[in-house]
Amino acid sequence: MPDAPGPAPTPMEAPYAGLEPAVVLDALYAAGFACDGRLLQLNSYENRVYQAPLEDGRVVVAKFYRPGRWSDEQIAEEHSFALELAAAEIRVVPPLTLEIADGLHVDPACPTLGHFGVAPQQRFRFSVSDRRAGRAPELEQPETLAWIGRLLARLHSVGRREPFAHRRKIDMTTFGRAPRQRLIDAGFVDPEIDSGWIAASEEALDQAERAFERHGALHLLRLHGDCHAGNVLWREDSGPHFVDLDDCCMGPPIQDLWMLLPGERAAVDAALHHLLDGYRDFQDFDDRELLLIEPLRTLRMVHHSAWLAERWRDPAFPIAFPWFASPAYWSQQTIDLREQIDRMRDAG
Known about the structure:
This protein is an alpha+beta fold. It has two domains: 21-130, Phosphorylase Kinase, domain 1; 142-347, Transferase(Phosphotransferase) domain 1 (Transferase(Phosphotransferase), domain 1), CATH 1.10.510. Helix content is 41%, strand content 12%. A six-stranded antiparallel beta sheet has the order 1-2-3-6-5-4, covered by helices on one side. Strand 4 (104-106) and strand 5 form a beta hairpin. The relative contact order is 0.13.
């Protein structure tokens, strides 16, 4: 792994260096949201997200997108999907329409995405949504899992209507082969020191690819894409709400189910039963996709390592993930990938 600290981060490596609180407040004001001056930065590594009380008593959440990650067309598809889900009375938190003012550009084709800043190279893209309060779901409760399963089935019913044109899709190249190669090419994996990870990751991806080949053609649809417990908000009056469609993509339905399963293997079957029991109230489910859980988990492991490497020059990441810079990380990843190989081999 490259030694730290090295040269100062470039603007793309430290993309939020100019996003001062005054800039956030000015952007919100220009978009028609008169804040009372208070800001609370919320937990988010990829984007910068702020909770802002307004003078009229409402509270909104502003998301400033990481420069260079998504195109305007990809963000527009995220917003359109969220609005389509909300129109179908599926509990998501959709973006709000922005006003147009000096210093703020809003494309009429996507009135929920703002570009704020004086110069093009200093502009930040952002969206605003209502704050939705709630708590983490109790995933050990059967009825909670069934309720989430029903809501996911309804989300997928909307996702089947048409495909994304610009968002990425889950496949071996995008989430497996390409991220692994980027890690090696960038020098984050030393061929001599980390040879175990290099061998394990190649074998694990080979096993995953064989599993996809055995399944045959996948029926892809628009998904949440990152549906883990942290992106499900539970409200006592209305149950689960899905938040953060930032990673929405094209993929198989099982992608939105498996990340909600517990880590303890003995509890997986029971949790999956309750999720699918609720899901099948609204949608059919192809049981063959259950054999894709471990291959999809393998892709996520490799992709997550590449994501950390690609953000490592962002000053926030070494602070949040200090263990990523240690040899122990790659040793543990090697062990985990070997376990994945065994699971996929047993399933096949």
